[in-house]
């Protein structure tokens, strides 16, 4: 018999002497008593499970467990008997002789329960299981067996595990000395007096053979992944955190060797306020060095859908808090469960004092295996960070699984030091006494294989870096080949987030400028509170739309409060600026000053709407006067729509300009719309099909070329069902299940005049109503599509397709801090990994172009798309039913735009145009300014750059008060890959650059160098 076959047979034989399968012996119960058991055992299905329907249905199972005299001839008298169970249930309770001995759930989903020590034949226990199925999925008792083990020495199952580990490392060891002993074991017939000495002997012999395995070390660190929200409300998270941390602190008293790690400053901050005594114990544990705070970010966020400044604040507020309460920043970005990582992340982590990035999520890839376990992650700006693809989280103590991982890790990285993270997770729990006892038993019995050593995460990473520095490098995004639906699911969350994120950045910027130039008091604490709420809502099961309805019932009021607070702060800052302007003499009696604010870097003009409700109703009409140049601006009174529309002059970048609304005796009549459905300005000619509502012609007038290959803005519907993780995953085969399109109900002009043409189209799809308005404004180079959808579907995917009259092998997507270039598909010449990018995330724009010509799509809250060589297709809506059965049902409002351009995306300044699309000019009517006339005028000029530079490729991420209150912080990013020079100018603020800063607002050695390298992110301390 071949030695490998002999080892396998011996292993299986020894396992059979210690383990009894009891899975087919459970009887259904009608009450929690075995007296009410049925006469037939519960059926085992084809998967080997005991299954019952989803929907939180109860299942009672029971059986009497008796100790046999022998198992396959092996006497079990005097051994310890354990009941091993694994389930898939929302709740699980194990009763032994009428007493509840263990409670678990979907995440604490297994137990090895000690029924008795030193058992005797005939000894019996009545075991009853109460299982409640998940609401989303059928429940299952997955596994159940009895296991006998020795409390003092090795036993058959222990040696079977050692033989399994020998098999794992067999290629590196000489196993021939075991052959005779293995044959004797197989011939022992399970007779314990014969077998037990053989077990002890072969254990010793294996240890001698496997001495090289002692050069391997498995570092253990307890862990409790704790989702801040998911299948439970946020309020429950705080209670789960407290019980988890109390459990860890209690275990430490019984098991001094224990180490533990946990992230999430937001959670620590909550405990500091609401459980100060417990928090004090955690602080002491951190100070003692056994509790590791791997908390480089405020929460473990969704990173593909948030912008660069949000990532910066995740790091700033996370590290700031850890420094304040634990005495030092964290060198670790602990992101085990985030759904993919943008390629510019290394720059932000490195500037935040983080040296190590850790995840395990790419183990979830659905097609390819991520090739590296320990590597240098490098971004296009040259930033580097050591990255660890860790072992899976939520694991127990399984010597065979751990040895398998250690061997694979060694083969992949060359390191004999691996990391294992025991602990129940997702819903908290952490390491258990059972896990710690298993570690002690394996160590006490000198179990074969790598050494096991409790250590902290930080100690492990530092030791690994010193002994085995990573030699492989990865540049680019860490794209997760899974969870592609998270770019779209729960569109209301994306819309609220994006609006709040934009508004908060603008509010902070204008509050800073108002505080510098007027008596306005900078609202430091209010802004920080807003940021921390925004960052919390970016958690990776909130923003992606993958939580239960109760979570969104908690989150939605916070979005409303965020929007209300940021709008109030923004308006207050701009009001303070308005009140401080020297308006001079009104051009005519009754004129009303209006100040136009531009939050963007470059000077720009734009179309602005003034709500007529803000103006005196007795005035029949208005003209708009520009004092700089003494001329009237193009304007149109649109009484049916209740607005005055006008085109502004160039408004200074990060600045403002004063205009006057002057009374007129009568309005100009609204022009009569044309009979056909054509929108046209100096840039574009757009034709809409009256029978379908789609774009039949999008013609670039400047470059004299059509942009579309077929009809544009095709609303396409697909059946999207079949993948288990419903809210997370788009069915990879959705394209094979296209549905009939929407039915056109009406098409009509809403507005048609020189400044704005707005054509409304309505469709009906099944139970849903869809309204879109094609909007083309004066001297604006894009077509905007304003959309309102009453979505009432289930498992249907909606996309908007734009077939283009160009072809390219790549698209460029805006991603946090820069861009990511991705392939158009299908393309059989690409690597298997690149071919998995059939649905990808972006922030606000995506571009398909050749060096000569291109087309971009802008989107204000839609983040998923797919791209073919000649087509861009936005993903607008999904309709999953788990974990939220009402996900996406209801009204959605969003806009997207089409921007044709000459040349590459850099040459066409796509990022700058997209910024204008997403940050329109704001107007403030200054009624109160009339009170100033005849009194002391303000001191600010009527037209001013407050913060200005000429390099359009340098984007402003933030202007804020410094955290120490000393001066101001300006954060900028070079976003075209071409580099640039930052030269600050202002009409009235004497900006002085005091030096470079990190994201943590610590000084760097940058000096006075104001040239930005391609893709560089720079933070500067300013004084005035």
Structure description:
The model has no long low-confidence stretch (mean pLDDT 96). The strands form 13 sheets. The chain has a 9-stranded antiparallel sheet. The protein is an alpha+beta fold and 1024 residues long. The longest helix has 31 residues, at 549-579. 49% of the residues are buried.
Describe the largest sheet: 9 strands, antiparallel
Oligomer: single chain
Tell me roughly what share of residues is in helical segments: 10-25%
Q: What is the radius of gyration computed over CA atoms, rounded to a whole number of angstroms?
A: 33 Å
Estimate what percentage of residues fall within beta strands: 25-35%
Give the rounded overall mean pLDDT.
96
Taking pLDDT < 50 over at least 5 consecutive residues as the criterion, the unreliable ranges are: none
Which secondary-structure class do the elements indicate? alpha+beta
- Tally the beta strands: 56
How many angstroms separate the termini?
85 Å
> How do the strands of the widest beta sheet line up side by side?
36-37-38-39-48-45-44-41-42
| Rough outline | elongated
User: Total number of helical segments?
Assistant: 17
Task: Provide tags for this entry.
1024 residues; alpha+beta
Topology, please?
Elements: H1 3-18, E1 19-21, E2 27-28, E3 50-52, E4 58-66, E5 70-71, E6 74-75, E7 80-88, E8 91-96, E9 99-105, E10 110-116, E11 124-132, E12 139-149, H2 156-168, H3 179-186, H4 192-209, E13 217-220, E14 222-223, H5 234-254, E15 260-262, H6 265-274, H7 276-288, E16 291-293, H8 308-326, E17 332-334, H9 345-351, E18 356-359, E19 374-378, E20 384-389, H10 399-413, E21 417-420, H11 433-444, E22 451-454, H12 457-467, E23 472-475, H13 491-517, H14 524-537, H15 549-579, E24 592-598, E25 607-611, E26 621-626, E27 631-632, E28 635-638, E29 643-647, E30 655-664, E31 678-680, E32 684-688, E33 695-700, E34 705-706, E35 714-719, E36 743-752, E37 756-765, E38 768-777, E39 783-791, E40 796-803, E41 810-815, E42 818-823, H16 832-835, E43 840-841, E44 845-849, E45 853-859, E46 864-868, E47 871-877, E48 890-902, H17 910-918, E49 922-925, E50 943-945, E51 954-961, E52 968-974, E53 980-981, E54 992-997, E55 1011-1012, E56 1017-1023
Helix pairs in contact: 1-2, 1-3, 2-4, 2-10, 3-4, 5-7, 6-7, 8-14, 13-14, 13-15, 14-15
């Amino acid at each position: 018999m071949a030695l490998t076959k002999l080892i396998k047979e011996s292993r299986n034989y020894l396992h059979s002497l210690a383990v009894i399968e009891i899975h087919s012996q459970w009887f259904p119960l009608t009450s929690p008593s075995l007296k009410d058991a049925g006469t037939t055992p519960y059926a085992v299905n084809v998967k080997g499970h005991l299954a019952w329907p989803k929907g939180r249905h109860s299942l009672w199972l029971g059986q009497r467990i008796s100790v046999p005299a022998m198992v396959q001839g092996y006497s079990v008298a005097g051994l310890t008997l354990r009941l091993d169970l694994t389930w898939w249930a929302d709740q699980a309770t194990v009763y032994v002789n009428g007493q509840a001995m263990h409670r678990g759930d979907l995440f604490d989903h297994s137990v090895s329960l000690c029924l008795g020590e030193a058992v005797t034949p005939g000894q019996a226990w009545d075991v009853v299981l109460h299982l409640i199925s998940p609401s989303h999925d059928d429940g299952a008792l997955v596994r159940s067996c009895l296991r006998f083990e020795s409390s003092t020495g090795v036993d058959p199952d222990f040696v079977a595990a050692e033989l399994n580990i020998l098999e794992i490392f067999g290629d590196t060891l000489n196993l021939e000395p075991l052959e005779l002993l293995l044959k004797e074991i197989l011939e022992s017939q399970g007779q314990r007096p014969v077998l037990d000495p053989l077990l002890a002997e072969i254990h010793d012999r294996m240890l001698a053979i496997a001495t090289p395995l002692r050069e391997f070390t498995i570092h253990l660190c307890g862990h409790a992944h704790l989702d801040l929200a998911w299948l439970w409300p946020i309020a429950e998270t705080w209670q789960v955190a407290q019980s988890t941390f109390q459990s860890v602190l209690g275990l430490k008293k019984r098991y001094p060797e224990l180490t533990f790690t946990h992230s999430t400053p937001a959670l620590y901050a909550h405990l500091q306020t609401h459980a100060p005594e417990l928090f004090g114990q955690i602080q002491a544990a951190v100070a003692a060095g056994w509790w590791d705070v791997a908390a480089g970010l405020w929460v473990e966020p969704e990173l593909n859908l948030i912008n660069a400044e949000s990532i910066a604040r995740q790091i700033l507020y996370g590290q700031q808090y850890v420094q304040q309460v634990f005495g030092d920043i964290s060198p670790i970005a602990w992101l085990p469960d985030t759904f993919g990582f943008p390629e510019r992340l290394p720059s932000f982590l490195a500037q935040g004092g983080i040296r190590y990035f850790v995840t395990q999520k790419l183990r979830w890839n659905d097609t390819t295996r991520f090739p590296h376990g320990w590597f240098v992650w490098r971004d296009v700006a040259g930033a580097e960070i050591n990255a660890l693809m860790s072992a899976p989280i939520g694991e127990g103590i399984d010597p065979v699984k751990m040895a398998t991982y250690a061997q694979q890790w060694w083969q992949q990285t060359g390191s004999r030091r691996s990391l294992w993270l025991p602990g129940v997770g997702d819903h908290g729990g952490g390491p258990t006494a059972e896990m710690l006892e298993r570690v002690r038993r394996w160590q006490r019995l000198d179990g074969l294989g790598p050494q096991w050593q409790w250590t902290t995460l930080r100690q492990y990473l530092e030791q690994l870096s010193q002994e085995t520095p990573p030699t492989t490098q990865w540049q680019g995004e860490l794209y997760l080949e899974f969870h592609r639906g998270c770019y779209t699911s729960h569109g209301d969350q994306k819309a609220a987030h994006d609006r709040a994120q934009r508004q908060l950045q603008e509010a902070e910027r204008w509050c800073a400028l108002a505080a510098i130039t007027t008596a306005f008091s900078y609202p430091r604490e209010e802004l920080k509170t807003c940021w921390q709420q925004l960052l919390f809502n970016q958690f990776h099961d909130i923003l992606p739309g993958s939580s239960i309805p109760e979570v969104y019932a908690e989150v939605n009021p916070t979005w409303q409060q965020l929007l209300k607070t940021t709008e109030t702060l923004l308006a207050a800052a701009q009001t303070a600026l308005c009140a401080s302007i020297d308006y001079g003499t009104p051009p005519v009696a009754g004129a009303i000053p209006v100040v136009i604010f531009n939050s963007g870097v470059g000077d720009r003009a734009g179309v602005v709407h003034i709500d007529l409700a803000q103006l005196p109703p007795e005035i029949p009409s208005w003209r708009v006067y520009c004092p700089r140049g003494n001329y009237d601006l193009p304007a149109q009174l649109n009484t049916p729509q209740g607005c005055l529309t006008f085109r502004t002059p160039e408004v200074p970048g990060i600045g403002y300009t004063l205009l006057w609304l002057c009374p007129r005796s009568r309005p100009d009549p609204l022009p009569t719309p044309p009979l056909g459905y054509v929108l046209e300005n100096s840039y574009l000619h757009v034709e809409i099909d009256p029978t379908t509502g789609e774009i039949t012609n999008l013609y670039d007038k400047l470059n004299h070329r059509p942009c579309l290959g077929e009809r544009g803005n095709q609303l396409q519907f697909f059946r999207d069902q079949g993948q288990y993780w419903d809210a997370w995953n788009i069915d990879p085969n959705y394209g094979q299940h296209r549905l009939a399109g929407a039915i056109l109900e009406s098409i009509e002009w809403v507005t048609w005049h020189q400044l704005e043409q707005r054509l409304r189209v309505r469709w009906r799809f099944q139970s849903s109503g869809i309204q879109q308005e094609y909007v083309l404004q004066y001297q604006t180079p894009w077509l905007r599509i304003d959309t309102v959808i009453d979505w009432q579907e289930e498992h249907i995917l909606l996309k908007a397709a734009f077939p283009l009259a160009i072809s390219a092998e790549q698209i460029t997507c805006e991603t946090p801090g820069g861009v990511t270039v991705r392939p158009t598909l299908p393309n059989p010449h690409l690597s298997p990994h690149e071919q998995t990018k059939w649905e990808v995330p972006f922030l606000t724009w995506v571009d398909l172009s050749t060096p000569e010509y291109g087309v971009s799509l802008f989107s204000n809250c839609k983040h998923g798309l797919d791209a073919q060589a000649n087509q861009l297709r936005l993903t607008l809506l999904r309709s999953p039913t788990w974990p939220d059965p009402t996900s996406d049902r209801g009204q959605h409002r969003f806009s997207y735009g089409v921007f044709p351009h000459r040349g590459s995306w850099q040459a066409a300044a796509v990022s700058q145009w997209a910024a204008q699309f997403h940050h329109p000019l704001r107007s403030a009517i200054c009624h109160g300014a009339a009170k100033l006339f005849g009194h002391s005028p303000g001191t600010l000029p009527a037209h001013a750059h407050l913060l200005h530079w000429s390099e359009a490729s340098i984007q402003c991420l933030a202007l804020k008060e410094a955290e120490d209150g000393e001066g101001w912080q300006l954060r900028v990013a070079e976003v075209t890959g071409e580099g640039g020079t930052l030269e600050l100018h202002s009409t009235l603020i004497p900006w002085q650059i005091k030096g470079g800063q990190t994201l943590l607002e610590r000084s760097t050695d940058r000096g006075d160098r104001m040239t930005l390298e391609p893709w560089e992110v720079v933070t500067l301390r300013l004084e005035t």
